Protein backbone atom coordinates (compact mmCIF):
# COMPACT_ATOMS: atom_id res chain seq x y z
CA UNK A 1 0.00 0.00 0.00
CA UNK A 2 2.83 2.41 0.78
CA UNK A 3 4.30 1.72 -2.65
CA UNK A 4 1.01 2.77 -4.27
CA UNK A 5 0.85 5.92 -2.17
CA UNK A 6 4.49 6.67 -3.06
CA UNK A 7 3.55 6.34 -6.72
CA UNK A 8 0.98 9.10 -6.19
CA UNK A 9 -2.18 7.01 -6.40
CA UNK A 10 -5.26 8.34 -4.68
CA UNK A 11 -7.05 6.28 -2.05
CA UNK A 12 -9.62 5.28 -4.67
CA UNK A 13 -6.96 4.20 -7.18
CA UNK A 14 -4.99 2.27 -4.54
CA UNK A 15 -8.22 0.63 -3.37
CA UNK A 16 -8.91 -0.62 -6.89
CA UNK A 17 -5.39 -2.10 -7.11
CA UNK A 18 -5.75 -3.81 -3.74
CA UNK A 19 -9.44 -4.77 -4.07
CA UNK A 20 -10.35 -3.01 -0.81
CA UNK A 21 -12.47 0.00 0.07
CA UNK A 22 -10.96 3.49 -0.28
CA UNK A 23 -11.74 4.21 3.38
CA UNK A 24 -9.63 1.16 4.30
CA UNK A 25 -6.70 2.61 2.33
CA UNK A 26 -7.14 5.94 4.11
CA UNK A 27 -7.22 4.21 7.50
CA UNK A 28 -4.01 2.28 6.74
CA UNK A 29 -2.28 5.44 5.51
CA UNK A 30 -3.34 7.31 8.63
CA UNK A 31 -2.15 4.46 10.89
CA UNK A 32 1.28 4.48 9.22
CA UNK A 33 1.42 8.27 9.40
CA UNK A 34 0.68 8.21 13.12
CA UNK A 35 3.18 5.43 13.82
CA UNK A 36 5.91 7.26 11.92
CA UNK A 37 4.96 10.56 13.59
CA UNK A 38 4.89 12.37 10.27
CA UNK A 39 2.84 15.41 9.26
CA UNK A 40 1.29 14.32 5.97
CA UNK A 41 1.56 11.76 3.14
CA UNK A 42 4.59 13.38 1.52
CA UNK A 43 6.46 13.55 4.82
CA UNK A 44 5.44 9.94 5.58
CA UNK A 45 6.73 8.63 2.23
CA UNK A 46 9.99 10.57 2.54
CA UNK A 47 10.44 9.15 6.04
CA UNK A 48 9.78 5.50 5.11
CA UNK A 49 12.12 5.72 2.10
CA UNK A 50 14.85 7.38 4.17
CA UNK A 51 14.48 4.74 6.90
CA UNK A 52 14.57 1.89 4.36
CA UNK A 53 11.01 0.81 5.19
CA UNK A 54 9.95 1.15 1.56
CA UNK A 55 12.62 -0.66 -0.45
CA UNK A 56 13.29 0.70 -3.91
CA UNK A 57 15.93 -0.24 -6.42
CA UNK A 58 16.02 3.01 -8.37
CA UNK A 59 13.74 5.26 -6.36
CA UNK A 60 10.05 5.87 -6.30
CA UNK A 61 9.93 7.39 -9.79
CA UNK A 62 11.00 4.08 -11.34
CA UNK A 63 8.61 1.80 -9.41
CA UNK A 64 5.94 0.07 -11.46
CA UNK A 65 2.64 -1.48 -10.49
CA UNK A 66 2.85 -5.26 -10.34
From TrEMBL:
GO terms for biological process: regulation of DNA-templated transcription. InterPro entries: Sig_transdc_resp-reg_C-effctor, Tscrpt_reg_LuxR_C, WH-like_DNA-bd_sf. Residues 1-52 form the HTH luxR-type domain. PROSITE patterns: HTH_LUXR_2. GO terms for molecular function: DNA binding. This is HTH luxR-type domain-containing protein.
